[in-house]
Amino acid sequence: MARIRLKLGGNEIEVDSKDFYVDNQSVDDVITNLSRYVAEGTDVSEKEVSINYLSSLEDVEIHEPEFTAPIPIDSSQIRSKLHILVRDSFFKHPRTVSEVVAQLYEYGWSARPLDVSKILVNMALNRELQKDSQEKRSYYSSINLVQLS
């Protein structure tokens, strides 16, 4: 699955699909072409669009699950990876531990379910995630904070 999110000026685009394939050689071209599309109608110059965005991104990771084994992560890294899933709206809907482990695998990381479970429980206790139980199963989701006026 390819997931690319770009923001230029006031415009933003996110491409998330299982219908196409982007390999390591073509991902930079895809990002550059999307950048040109997003830049249309903004005050972003052509020079800014032609920058090699892939090399300028922080913490960029390219993972091809069909061809590479996921990187094992230890329990100290799980929380930061789960924050990436929160940022990407994965927890918009309630998720089980096995679903979280599978999504981490899709992102290119492998973690033990027990370690993931412990971190999820800890995040729920710290009110970073919401925990609900149904039919003896725990589900974790994002907390939508309501602001009072």
Please give a structural write-up:
This protein is an alpha+beta fold. It is built from six helices and six strands. The strands form three sheets. A two-stranded antiparallel ribbon has the order 1-2. A two-stranded parallel sheet has the order 3-4. Strands 5-6 form a two-stranded antiparallel ribbon. It starts with a strand and ends in a 7-residue tail after the last strand.
What's the gist of this structure?
The chain has six helices and six strands, in the order E-E-H-H-H-E-H-H-E-H-E-E. With 149 residues, it is of the alpha+beta class.
Q: Topology, pairings included?
A:
Elements: E1 2-8, E2 11-17, H1 27-39, H2 46-49, H3 53-56, E3 71-72, H4 75-87, H5 97-106, E4 109-110, H6 113-125, E5 129-134, E6 137-142
Parallel strand pairs: 3-4
Antiparallel strand pairs: 1-2, 5-6
